Amino acid sequence: MQHDSYDDQNWSRNDRRTTARRGPFLSRHGGKMMAALVLAVVAVGAVVYNATRPEDQSPDIVEAPPASDAVEDGAGVDLTQPFAGTPAEAWPDGVTGIVAPPPVAVGEFSAEEVGQAYAKVRQVLIASRLDREVIEGHDYERFLKLLAPKARADLRPGFSDDLGTSYSYATRIADDFRLLPVDPKVQGTMSAELGKDGSLVIHTNYVFAYAFDTLTPERVTDAMDIVAVDRWEADYVLTDDRWPEDNQGLWLDKVQGYGYSIACTAYKEGSLAPAYSERIDGDDADPEAEDRYFDPSKPLLTDSSCPA
Questions:
Q1: Helix (H, G, I), strand (E, B), or coil: what is residue 90?
Q2: Which helix (H) or strand (E) holds 79?
Q3: What is the DSSP string of 25-77?
Q4: What percentage of the chain reaches a pLDDT higher than 70?
Q5: Does residue 205 contact residue 164 with C-beta atoms inside 8 Å?
Q6: Alpha-carbon torsion, ordered 213, 216, 218, 220, to 10 deg
Q7: 93-119: per-residue pLDDT in tens?
């Protein structure tokens, strides 16, 4: 059932909270992963790089269903165009917003190999941040299957017993909410560089804006009442046959991000819910600074207006 409660006396549309979260993968898994990679290099020694790559795994992406005629206009917000008037209004829709740059050679990796790595990372981003079977249906195997076998084994338990950590890896829409039948808006970049251990590192920096449905559209007076924003900077490491077989493939190395116009309690528990669902006492966010939260070129936030 959809949660859609308001407290007219305590809720303010300007009560948009931000939080900065350091992705825990580097501290919890990064050391283990890098140790495994270093040991593999020592054990294997000088091995000629094999350019062969496995075929890309492409998940069956479930995108937004067609907009329903039953969706009504709110008081000042057209729920069929929920991003109108927000900084994300003109952004690309869904998967079209995740575009890799033209690939160029990086170290021993040819331009073709870098292009293949971009394609793999793009599929991971689509699965973890846009695929509705993952973010709303919570079928995280659709995301995990795209990672290296050892990475899958390390991350899988968190999706059942550590939602706060696993949210850094894949978006989770709170159980009592649903998104509107429109694609999220997406803006960002990706780039490649050579890792110190000879692996290929793909840096990603994307902002995702999600529009939530509501059972009481007449109470929605501003688009940011129902639009929640996630920004993630994530590094993906691609390893080849110089490493043990179960270490070959994509790894998440470092994840950092923040949420804006979100429900703080749900966010801390590892789920995304709209700001209208929760009233938090404190200073309102500066409306003049709103563009900053949508801009992936700005430095990541390090403070939070959510209560400790």
A1: coil
A2: none
A3: HIIIIIHHHHHHHHHHHHHH-S-PPP---PPPP------PPPPPTTPPP-SS-
A4: 72
A5: no
A6: -50
A7: 999 999 999 999 999 999 999 999 999
Beta strands in 45-196 (DSSP E): 185-194
DSSP state string for 5-19: ---TTT--TT--EEE
Q: 242-289, pLDDT tens digit by residue?
A: 899 999 999 999 999 999 999 999 998 999 999 888 855 444 555 557
| Distance of alpha carbon 304 from alpha carbon 308, whole angstroms | 9
3-state secondary structure (DSSP) of residue 20: strand
Please say whether the beta carbons of 155 and 167 come within 8 A: no
CB 290 within 8 A of CB 189: no
CB count within 10 Å of CB 65 equals 9
Taking 90 as the threshold, does the pLDDT of residue 194 lie above it? Answer: yes
In angstroms, the Cα distances linking 296 to 18, 119, 202 are 15, 21, 16
- 239, 248 in Cβ contact below 8 A? yes
CB 179 within 8 A of CB 213: yes
